[in-house]
Amino acid sequence: MSTLSKEQIKAIVKGNNFQSVTDVTNYLKDIIQELMEAELEEKLGYAKRRT
């Protein structure tokens, strides 16, 4: 697993124009959701069915 450098984190913050902690929290929730779905897909061998 790799980590982000401070410069990469600054670029993400600048590129997303976060206005509040809630914005950051929602962004992180989306990332975690995508990571969890990718891990499940890898373990189960197929993608989650999206409606």
UniProtKB/TrEMBL annotation:
Name of the protein in its database record: Transposase, Mutator family
